[in-house]
């Protein structure tokens, strides 16, 4: 862990410049009737969960290039998230993947979580790989498998995930299925849906009433002809059939190129069914890039929908669970997560700056150019001083990535855990 005073020392030489920039932006915003301090508070309150599988270097199917110092067990993963949270004050929770992260020493873990001011956000089931000693294979699907025994085994695994989560006070089960088919005709498409629906209903029944189920969709991979839950419509219909505690999870990487994701987000909120978000970025495929690195405008438009819906009294959407879902093979994963959070906070800040009254007016009057200009005004504002101020207010570093490097964290982790440490993960 970093000491608070170490972070303050690292902030010290940057403070004067930061204060100048923050005051300058606050003045400019106040001339637009915007209160910078209020925006900063909303950024401070925004928390995004870190998945345990993003803390080690990911791989491609061609190879993996570990950088060393990667967490070897759940305690070390929690420790890494604690470090991130110290640096940016925005990552106060961790998502577990079972069976990679089966909690053993519950009391010890609870104490560690408390000390690091963290909570467990969600548990994610894994029925996309066969585990050692498992009776039925998932080669042809899990919750949708044609074999009753395989489906029961996958249902039981999800119920076990809930039990593991309960031990650590989690309240969310996230279900992502690799089920689908690789060839035309391989699978009866409607029956596969019905079997999935039945299996999910059995899990939902077993879920405590204060738990939520998030159902993730994905149009391709690892199956390339069809997936059983390819799109938000399928997730939505499954949630509708299950009950109010099942909601749709939008993973940014799970869309075909050029999909209007912000519109999907708006629709789901309108229907009160947007349950969660997995942030990442992509050019071609899933989980490829750092969130907001290649399409920052799209990320802003997504946040614009979130902010707009949050202010609309006429709709009631559940609290949205935010998580980063990424896995990189060339960057230091901790640096990447700090960058991702920063891009997320920047997009959120910009969405908070949109002049909504003027925008609604322009929209009602079909003033296309004016509406677009309003969006551009917000998007082109340099919000870095707001984000830095939010870090500072939360006791974090003004520049988290620079502080991470200056504090020599990776070097220390390599010393403690070794050059060749490996973590499980995607
Ligand atoms: C596979 O596509 C995936 O990236 C999904 O997005 C899940 O959320 C994640 O793995 C963890 O199972
Ligand atoms: Mn995901
Ligand atoms: Mn994914």
From TrEMBL:
In its keyword annotation, does this UniProt entry include Acyltransferase?
A: no
InterPro entries under this entry?
L-rhamnose_isomerase, Xyl_isomerase-like_sf
Q: Which domain of life is it from?
A: Bacteria
Q: Which Gene3D superfamilies match?
A: Divalent-metal-dependent TIM barrel enzymes
Annotated Gene Ontology MF terms?
isomerase activity; metal ion binding
Give the record's keywords alphabetically. Answer: Isomerase, Manganese, Metal-binding
Indicate yes or no for the key word Ribonucleoprotein.
Answer: no
Its protein name is Sugar isomerase
Q: Which organism is it from?
A: Hymenobacter telluris
């Amino acid at each position: 862990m970093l000491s608070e005073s170490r972070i303050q020392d690292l902030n010290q030489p940057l403070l004067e410049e930061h204060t100048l920039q923050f005051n300058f932006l606050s003045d400019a915003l106040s001339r637009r009737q915007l209160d910078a301090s209020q925006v900063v508070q909303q950024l401070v309150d925004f928390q995004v969960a870190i998945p345990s599988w993003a803390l080690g270097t990911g791989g491609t199917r061609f190879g993996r290039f570990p950088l060393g110092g990667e967490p070897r067990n759940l305690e070390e993963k929690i420790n890494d998230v604690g470090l991130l949270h110290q640096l940016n004050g925005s990552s106060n929770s961790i998502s577990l993947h079972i069976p990679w992260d089966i909690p053993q020493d519950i009391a010890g873990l609870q104490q560690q979580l408390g000390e690091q001011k963290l909570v467990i956000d969600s548990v994610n089931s894994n029925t996309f790989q066969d585990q050692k000693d498992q009776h039925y294979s998932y080669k042809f699907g899990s919750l949708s498998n044609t074999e009753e025994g395989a489906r029961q085994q996958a249902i039981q695994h999800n119920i076990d995930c809930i039990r593991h989560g309960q031990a650590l006070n989690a309240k969310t089960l996230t279900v992502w299925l690799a089920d689908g088919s690789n060839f035309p005709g391989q699978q009866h498409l409607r029956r596969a849906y019905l079997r999935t629906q039945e299996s999910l209903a059995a899990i939902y029944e077993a879920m405590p009433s204060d738990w939520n189920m998030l159902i993730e969709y994905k149009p391709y991979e690892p199956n390339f002809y069809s997936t059983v839950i390819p799109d938000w419509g399928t997730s939505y219909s499954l949630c509708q059939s299950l009950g109010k505690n099942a909601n749709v999870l939008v993973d940014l990487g799970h869309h075909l190129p050029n999909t209007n994701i912000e519109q999907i987000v708006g629709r789901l909120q309108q229907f009160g069914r947007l349950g969660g978000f997995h942030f990442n970025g992509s050019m071609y495929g899933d989980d490829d890039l750092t969130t907001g690195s290649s399409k920052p405008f799209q990320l802003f438009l997504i946040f614009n929908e979130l902010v707009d819906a949050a202010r609309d009294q006429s709709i009631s959407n559940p609290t949205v669970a935010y998580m980063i879902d990424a896995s990189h093979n060339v960057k230091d994963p901790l640096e990447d997560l700090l960058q991702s959070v920063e891009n997320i906070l920047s997009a959120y800040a910009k969405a908070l700056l949109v002049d909504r009254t003027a925008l609604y007016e322009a929209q009602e009057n079909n003033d296309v150019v004016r509406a677009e200009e309003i969006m551009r005004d917000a998007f082109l504002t340099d919000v870095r001083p707001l984000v830095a101020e939010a870090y500072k207010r939360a006791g974090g570093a003004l520049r988290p990535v620079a502080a991470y490097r200056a504090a020599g964290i990776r070097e220390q982790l390599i010393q403690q855990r070794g050059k060749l440490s490996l973590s499980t993960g995607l």
